[in-house]
């Protein structure tokens, strides 16, 4: 399963729809515990990387992304 990290940056709904349209299992990661059963992750909105890093740290996702 692929996890789409929801840290309040980017339009994750459109990403989810694209994967589901291709019958690919995805789930929204909105807590650190939800990283456990994914084999890949998508970080939407990383074009604004400085802001993305701040939001990822605020959501306590740092350890899961190391």
Plain-language structure description:
- With 66 residues, the chain is an alpha/beta fold.
- It is 30% helix and 17% strand.
- It has a three-stranded parallel beta sheet, covered by helices on one side.
- The protein is globular.
- The two termini are 19 Å apart.
- The mean pLDDT is 86.
- The radius of gyration computed from the alpha-carbon positions, rounded to a whole number of angstroms, is 11 Å
Structural class: alpha/beta
Rounded mean pLDDT score: 86
What proportion strand?
A: 15-25%
Number of strands: 3
Could you estimate the helical fraction of the residues in percent?
25-40%
Query: What shape does the CA trace take?
Result: globular
Summarize the helix and strand pattern as letters: EHEEH
Instruction: Give the CA-CA distance, first to last residue.
Output: 19 Å
| Low-pLDDT windows of residues | none
Count every helix, treating DSSP H or I runs of 4 or more residues as helices. Answer: 2
Strand order of the biggest β-sheet: 2-1-3
Q: Give a quick account of the main beta sheet: strands, pairing sense, barrel closure.
A: 3 strands, parallel
State the oligomer: single chain
């Amino acid at each position: 399963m692929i996890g789409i990290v929801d840290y309040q940056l980017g339009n994750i709904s459109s990403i989810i729809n694209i994967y589901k349209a291709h019958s690919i299992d995805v789930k929204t990661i909105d807590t650190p515990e939800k990283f456990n059963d994914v084999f890949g992750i998508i970080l939407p909105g990383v074009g604004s990387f400085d802001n993305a890093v701040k939001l990822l740290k605020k959501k306590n996702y740092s350890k899961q992304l190391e």
